[in-house]
Write the structure tokens for this entry.
Amino acid sequence: MAVWNATKVYKSGLSLTTLRGVISVVGLLVVWELGRRLQVPFFAAVPAPSEVVVALEKVIGSGRFWSDWAASYSRVLVGFVAAQIIGIPLGLAMAMNRPFYHFIFPPLEVLRPIPPLAWVPTAIIFWPTTELSIAFVIFLGAFFTVVLNVLGGVEAIDVNYRRAAISMGARPWHIFWRVVLPATAPSIFTGMAVGMGLTWEIVVAAEMVASIQAGLGFMMWQAYVGGSIALIIVAMISIGLAGLVCSSAIWALGRRATPWRRRT
């Protein structure tokens, strides 16, 4: 009977892993609520989950909440997509052509350690609008990550695969499409997921630094100025959920694009 119930729960979409995750989140909320009500150190200075829910209801009712979500999402989307369009082909070209690699890689390595937020003042000066400045900073956060992951993925390919393809008469273009690109695909999606996490960190900080009048970062800054800790937590949770949704979409796309990696 217990086995049947477990099977039924699994088939309904609630796997044991998901159940554990739900229990851990609920447990954290319970501890948080009790810690606040009992005035436990650290928890006493943080609004309880019930207070955060009240703040969330107020900000959702104002209508500004979803416009801030949309503003941050659009900035992340523009910068992230631009980074993938340029970074993935560039990484593959560098990996396939060693002279090109030795020409491009040194300047990239010089620029890569510079924090993306350090580019904010320069971006504001050289780009015509603040929106383009923020998109450029987001682009930098995702660009270097995906390029390095592509390079690492190509270098990790077993050389025997290439040798086998060459021995069967494959041309360089065939080797790229049939060997290099499929083998590198998992690294590409890993770089995309990591880069997406970085873009959400950057967009929030950029919205604060650039003092732009919309976005989740702006909402958080306004909450800080107004002394609303509960609203700050609402903004933090919103950013976390936004990053989770975006990363989950990338991982789902990666699983569909690389079916040979699925576990049986």
Observations:
- The chain has one domain: 63-261.
- The radius of gyration is 23 Å.
